[in-house]
Design a protein that fits this description.
alpha/beta; Na+/H+ antiporter like fold; Rossmann fold; ten-stranded mixed sheet; 10 strands; elongated
Length: 717
């Protein structure tokens, strides 16, 4: 049809090439979704249709090679970036066993089939055995879409991927070196040294550079470009020492894992760009090299393709089956392992193309055209099988998780979580929003509530505009992670009553506010607004002060007072801190009495952060010098406090401001007031909006003077 319109084929104009590719990326998922087929298959089939061996609409030019290479690196990078490192450490032995076992099974069956069924020589069979052994995480985007990257079976498969691909690429390098004359022992010794040194360089140096960059530069575009540069630096260096770049991209993802929280604007941008452009480009490019016609033009191409596909799928199912039985896993975990590991693309393409370019002494190619076409067909079918199996298994996991979540909700008799963020200072808005994003329950998918209170005072219009700007900024920050923000601008006689009324209106269960900077002696450390909020709401309040970006915290120290386990919100604040630690991938240390630690361990053992938790006996909870000795500028101190009159309240809380100023003055800090039952005392009402807070100023002033005089006497002794 295009030829009848006098449009020369293949199309070479960059504008139309990009338009056609974007059209495919847009409509392929929409069409195949109605057929309940993973859109990954649609990308590959679209590549077959528009490629040289289809309708010849586009040729596989340098743009497909470039974007395809980026897409392949993206898949491996995301696999390392989204891996649950603590779970991976727990399952690393299983991952290594799975990798070695899978390689041995696939390599052995592959060699046997090539020699016995296809009649190939020993060298060709070894190369094809390496090709069978490798696999590509081409269906990993399905895992990301369902949010299942933390599953045990997923981490085992990803850990095994690096093992099988490394062994396969080493075999490929040996075969290639034999025909290039690079078979001396010194060559392999030097190659091993270079790979080892480069791996150590990526593991130890990359995180240092990234941590320094993220603390220095907060611009979202600069951070994204920096991450991409690190990915290609790792891939390029790995190619430089003779290995495939996918290993460097995967290692870069692993070392940046702890520095890029899974729920953060940066992670959202990385996933968005990869899934929208680069990964689809790679999949379309894979489809464009498939020559379907070669299977039906005579010869043994169809036989070779059938045997290769059967051997590839069968050997990988056997590996998944043995892994399931060996580690006593469930059937759906076996299906997930098989689905993720059954696709052959990256290392397989590298092996077959290298073998096709090698000319043996008799003038024949090490891998002939029939094997090349058969390999490409095998890639197509294994990608289809991988996508279908992974999608089916992911749906089962998602359904099970949803059923468990719903049953858990029915057992709870409380309001669904709703986080409210009062925004007033534009310098702290980003930190507070990022904190709220890290502690929120992603399963509820509820928007955050940001509130700006304008009091009846002079310059009301200016302060209103400033408040609206702060609200827009909060919404912009959260929208970068696909989280909505309900923007609330209120007029009220004082800020506290405005926040409380907004919290009641939106059923807020948690308040995240910024720590007040003390201005004078009668100004409390937490500010009058915070003090009033503690009296007028029983919800959990987090008072935060960050000296570094929240996403760069490397360890959390939590000081817990005695009898904290008797507070209503005890489990809730542990869960919130656990989510934060899981997002950051950092250790969380609890300091409490022996009795309280027992309850903390019980709650934490049911949370994803259980492998990150550390415990230390802390008989005198307010001796923060013990914590400050273990703090550095990348750590966060969390102090669990209590409202006056609560079960865990202690008179030492009155000296908390001076104690914190003394030991944690330059540190990032969060003070948590757990949720309580409704307290006695009048709440703020519209008829009494001030809540009679004025009399408290004199009491606070007297307490501060007394404390200061006492501290001066102690210092003079």
């Amino acid at each position: 049809m295009l030829e009848s319109l006098n449009i020369p084929l293949p199309i070479t104009d960059p504008t139309w090439i990009f338009f056609l590719v974007l059209t495919i990326i847009l409509f392929a998922p929409m069409i195949l979704e109605r057929l309940h087929i993973p859109h990954i298959i649609g990308m590959i089939l679209a590549g077959v249709a528009i490629g040289e061996y289809g309708f010849n609409i586009l040729e596989r030019d340098s743009s497909f090679e470039l974007f395809g290479e980026v897409g392949l690196y993206y898949i491996m990078f995301l696999a390392g970036l989204e891996m649950d490192m603590e779970d991976f450490k727990q399952n690393r032995t299983k991952g290594i066993i799975f990798g070695v076992l899978s390689f041995a099974i696939r390599f052995g069956i592959g060699m046997w089939s090539c020699m016995e069924l296809l009649g190939f020589g020993i060298t060709t069979s070894i190369l094809m055995g390496c090709m069978y052994a490798s696999h590509t995480l081409i269906s990993y985007p399905i895992i990301s879409r369902y949010g299942l990257s933390k599953l045990r079976c997923v981490n085992i498969t990803i850990g095994g991927t690096i093992i099988v691909d490394t062994l396969a690429l080493i075999g490929l390098a040996i075969i290639s070196g034999m025909y290039k004359g690079e078979t001396s022992g010194m060559f392999w010794v030097m190659m091993g040294i270079k790979v080892t040194l480069l791996t150590a360089f990526i593991i130890f140096v990359f995180p240092m550079i990234a941590r320094k960059f993220f603390r220095t530069y907060s611009d979202s575009i600069m951070q994204f470009v920096f991450v991409m540069a690190m990915v290609f630096l790792g891939a390029g260096l790995m190619q430089f020492v003779g290995m495939e770049g996918i290993l460097g991209a995967f290692l870069t993802g692993l070392v940046l894992n702890r520095l890029i929280p899974h729920v953060s604007p940066l992670m959202n941008r990385i996933e968005f760009v990869g899934n929208a452009i680069f990964i689809p480009y790679f999949l379309i490019g894979v489809g464009m090299i498939i020559d379907v016609n070669a299977l039906f033009t005579g010869g043994s191409a169809l036989k070779v393709a059938g045997i290769m596909t059967a051997v590839a799928v069968g050997s990988k199912w056997i590996g998944a089956f043995i892994t399931q039985k060996l580690f006593k896993m469930e059937r759906n975990e076996r299906s997930m392992i098989f689905g993720l590991s059954s696709a052959s693309a990256a290392a397989t393409l590298a092996a077959v193309l290298v073998g096709h370019q090698i000319i043996m002494e008799n003038g024949e190619r090490l891998i002939n055209d029939e094997v090349l076409n058969g390999t490409v067909v095998m890639i197509l079918f294994t990608c289809i099988i991988s996508s279908l199996a992974t999608e089916r298994s992911a749906r089962r996991f998602a359904l099970e998780e949803k059923l468990q979540f719903n049953s858990g909700k029915e057992e709870e008799n409380e309001l669904p979580e709703q986080i409210l963020i009062p925004v007033a200072n534009p310098e702290t808005t980003e930190h507070l929003v990022n904190l709220a994003l890290m502690i929120r329950d992603t399963k509820l998918n509820k928007p955050l509530v940001a509130v700006s209170v304008v009091t009846d005072n002079k310059n009301i219009q200016e302060r209103k505009q400033a408040g609206l700007k702060n609200l827009e900024n909060a919404a912009k920050i959260a929208s970068a992670t696909d989280v909505k923000v309900t923007q609330v601008s209120r007029y009220d006689l004082n800020i506290c009553s405005g926040i409380v009324h907004a919290a009641e209106e939106y059923n807020a269960t948690n308040l995240v506010i910024g720590l007040h900077w003390k201005a004078n002696i009668i100004d409390s450390f937490f500010g009058n607004v915070t003090a009033s909020l503690l009296k007028k709401t029983n919800r959990e309040i987090m008072v935060a002060r960050y000296m570094i970006p929240p996403t760069t915290v490397r360890k959390i120290h939590v000081a817990v007072p005695p009898r904290a386990e008797y507070e209503t919100g005890f489990a809730k604040w542990i869960e919130h801190l656990g989510r934060m630690a899981s997002q950051l991938g950092c250790k969380i240390a609890f300091y409490a009495t022996e009795e309280t630690l027992t309850y903390i361990k019980e709650v934490a053992s049911k949370l994803p952060c259980r492998t990150l938790a550390m415990y230390a006996t802390f008989d005198f909870w307010n001796e923060f010098n013990v914590i400050s000795e273990h703090m550095d500028d990348s750590h966060l101190a969390v102090v669990v406090c209590a409202r006056k009159g609560s079960i865990s309240y202690d008179t030492s809380f009155e000296r908390l401001p001076s104690t914190l100023n003394k030991h944690l003055q330059g540190s990032s800090l969060i003070v948590i007031y757990p949720e309580q039952f409704t307290q006695d005392g009048a709440a703020i009402t519209f008829s009494d909006p001030l809540g009679h807070n004025e009399s408290q100023h004199y009491e606070k002033a007297r307490e501060w003077v007394t404390d200061l005089l006492r501290l001066e006497k102690e210092d003079n002794k």
